[in-house]
Write a structure and sequence with these properties.
Dna Ligase, domain 1; D-amino Acid Aminotransferase, Chain A, domain 1; Rossmann fold; binds adenosine-5'-triphosphate; binds magnesium ion; alpha+beta; single chain
Length: 405
């Protein structure tokens, strides 16, 4: 089993996926733009060979170099679980005749308007929306859809350039800020709470499922620095409030013709209990989501993704034991972390439930919270009872405070 794996080094989950691939018996050919010497040791240790390209974002160049590199060899899989490269992986598969999801299938998970049209065509509830390529088209869509609305890039990530628009004035401002985005989408604004529906699928069938609640909604947490965002896995997937989202998610996978690999869907839960489709990607959720899912059931989904991808097989037994919370922290002030208040008391009280402390240490430079949800580090904790897990997560959000100077 020879696997070409795009970006084995970044984002931080990828070295673990590289390990997973090697552990299920694949020979991993990694392709990235990191120099060999600077690779994560876990990625390096589990690759058979590595090709450094100039830039992973230069699709034509990467296709050419990979084709030259692989000449005379055959690959059984071309895999990638990082959003900006999922289309490139599909292009390579099509060019080389390697099994896996086609460009058209993957596009349904990448282009926010195409995905919504396909999901809506299956009779599922999506926000009303329109693809727009100019200010005039955006205004036409706004008149049809009405305020409040959302305007965002057609292939966005991390809530970048995503605006809630409540008035004509706000619309003008948003259009100025989106001037450099060639294609945007205008959407009906959905009030509600936000959840994910995550899976590992084999030939479109989920062999693993997960739900996470975001607190607060991503657009708010991504734009307000003082907030400590929380994401919490839902241990009990039989819970009545999340069932509609799971049912919706399963139908979406069918509507989009999912193949094999991870999916990460976001959905809205309205006050009336309705689940409305948000967006979906054919890769794992970022930040700490895979670790959170692993800690929910004490399993290794890095390896199981690899097993599913290579051998169409999923081996983990995944009893849902815990609600796992990730609390991302942002320091007050600029520069280096100078103090961490409340951490000791928090650990004394809840130490048994903390499964990872990844807060930046005193002396470390702050990270750019607008660029990474990981911000100035995070805590992972877990509890079998939802309310207890939530209470601890909120305590971590409020009582642990980092200060920088
Ligand atoms: N139609 C909508 N109604 C209400 N809120 C929305 C809508 N569209 C987007 N949002 C808000 O903006 C956030 C980002 O939008 P979306 O998830 O589509 O983009 P993204 O940048 O790809 O996200 P990610 O951060 O998951 O990469 C959503 O999580 C939600 O909080
Ligand atoms: Mg999103």
């Amino acid at each position: 089993m020879d696997v070409l794996f795009l970006s084995p080094n970044y984002p931080p989950e990828m070295p673990q996926f590289t390990r997973g691939l090697a552990e299920v018996g694949a020979r991993v050919y990694g392709v990235g733009d990191t120099p060999k010497e600077a690779l994560d040791p876990i990625a390096r240790a589990h690759m058979h060979d590595y090709l450094q390209v100039r830039s992973l974002m230069d699709e034509a160049d990467v296709m050419e170099r990979c084709t030259r590199w692989m000449r005379g060899r055959s690959v059984d899989r071309v895999l990638c679980s990082w959003e900006p490269l999922v289309l490139l992986a599909a292009r390579l598969r099509e060019r080389w005749g390697v099994p896996g999801m086609s460009l058209d299938q993957v596009n349904g998970f990448r282009d926010k308007q195409i995905m919504k049209e396909r999901v809506a065509a299956a009779g599922l509830r999506v926000p009303h929306s329109a693809r727009v390529r100019s200010g005039r088209e955006a205004w036409e869509a706004a008149e049809r859809i009405g305020f409040p609305l959302i305007i965002k890039p057609i292939a966005g990530a991390g809530s970048a350039d995503t605006f809630r628009v409540d008035s004509a004035k706000a619309m003008d401002d948003a259009l100025v800020r989106l001037a450099r985005v060639p294609e945007a989408i205008v959407e009906e604004f959905i009030e509600g709470e936000e959840y994910t529906y995550d899976t590992i699928c084999i030939n479109g069938k989920p062999v693993y499922e997960n739900v996470v609640q975001y607190m607060p909604r991503p657009l708010i947490m991504r734009t307000q620095e003082w907030i400590s965002p929380i994401q919490l896995t839902v241990r009990d997937l039989e819970r009545q409030d999340v069932r509609p989202g799971i049912e919706l998610g399963r139908s979406v996978l069918t509507a989009l013709g999912m193949g094999t690999g991870y999916t990460h869907m976001e959905w809205y839960l309205t006050r009336s209990g309705e689940a409305i489709f948000g967006e979906i990607a054919c890769r794992n959720g970022g930040a700490c989501l895979v670790d959170q899912m692993n800690f929910t059931s004490d399993i290794d989904l890095y390896r199981e993704w690899a097993r599913a991808s290579c051998w169409d097989h999923f081996e983990a037994v995944s009893p849902r034991l815990y609600n796992v919370a990730c609390i991302f922290k942002r320091a007050q002030g600029r520069g280096r972390i100078q103090r961490i208040d409340g951490k000791e008391a928090f650990f004394q009280k809840y130490g048994n439930h903390i499964v990872r402390d990844a807060l930046l240490p005193v002396g470390a430079m702050r990270r750019d919270w607008t660029q990474t949800l990981l911000s100035d580090g995070y805590l992972l904790l877990r509890h079998p009872d939802w309310n207890e897990a939530l209470k601890m997560a909120q305590a971590a959000a409020q009582d642990v405070q980092l200060t920088a100077q």
